[in-house]
Amino acid sequence: MTxxxxxxxxxxxxxxxxxxxxxxxxxxWSEVRPDVGIVLGSxxxxxxxxxxxxxxxxxxxxxxxPSPSVDGHGGEWILGxxxxxxxxxxxxxxxxxxxxxxxxxxxxxxxxxxxxARGLILTNAAGGIREGWNPGDVVAIExxxxxxxxxPKLHKQTAAPVRxxxxxxxxxxxxRTEQWCRKESSKGAVQGFPRGVYAGLPxxxxxxxxxxxxxxxxxxDLVGMSTIQEAMTxxxxxxxxxxxxxxxxxxxxxxxxxLSHEEVMETGRRSRGQLLKIVNAAISTFDPAGSGIRP
Length: 295
Ligand code: HPA
Description:
By secondary structure, the chain is α/β, with parallel strands linked by helices. It has helices spanning 7-24, 102-105, 107-114, 171-185, 209-218, 228-236, 261-284; strands at residues 36-39, 52-58, 76-82, 85-90, 119-128, 138-146, 195-200, 222-224, 240-250, 286-287, 292-293. The strands form two sheets. Strands 5-8-7-6-9 form a five-stranded mixed barrel. Strands 10-11 form a two-stranded antiparallel sheet. The termini are far apart. Hypoxanthine is lined by residues 125-127, 206-207, 223-225, 248-249, 251, 259, 264.
């Protein structure tokens, strides 16, 4: 059994930090409400200039928050601004395969919701299953297949099934993001906007070629080891959710090559620019004040 998590205490601690960190710059950030949370996948970071940074805190210092053991997941949360939106970047995602249980995996999302965010953008590294996709492609997740063997204990869970979960990913917001990308693509900024179904497995091993054939038959286009529990929790907390996979490799058995974490990280580093442009589009189309989506 893991220790019970006090989400309010974690939020109080974060706001105290934001107050302290703002002192030098004479700005008190403690009352700020982030509009959108962003979870970045393996090897993906915002480049300088894309984000105006206000406060940075170490995940390991946040009371009760698990911190990552995997190479490439920076363990920091950054409060900052992208375009007109206040964003909270949740670095330091933890995974089931690190031995954390599902309640620990989704703690950051619960904190984000408690801090008042209305939207969440999830990103991940994934293996591409759909024929024709290549490493470096960015795919909007339109639905998921949960093969992780667990689901988060949703707050409102009663004896009856929780209904408002199908699909988790917000198609109105995805459509709006695609429109924005198409407008930008005439300037050469974003190429294409494929959509696909993400299958989440527990890991930590990559799939076998036979499993990848099975996943294709089940209707999966992408395979990874994260995202699903976070998306389900966010929807339960009333957040709008979008998710994007960066295809870092062809899924096992599709290329004749062995998969490696190094390859995943390397493609993540090389291709993060395209992913971040699309994340930017998602942020720009989110309207925390109105219906949630900018007209
Ligand atoms: N399988 C599972 N998870 C992954 C993969 C994959 O091929 N690539 C990146 N994360």
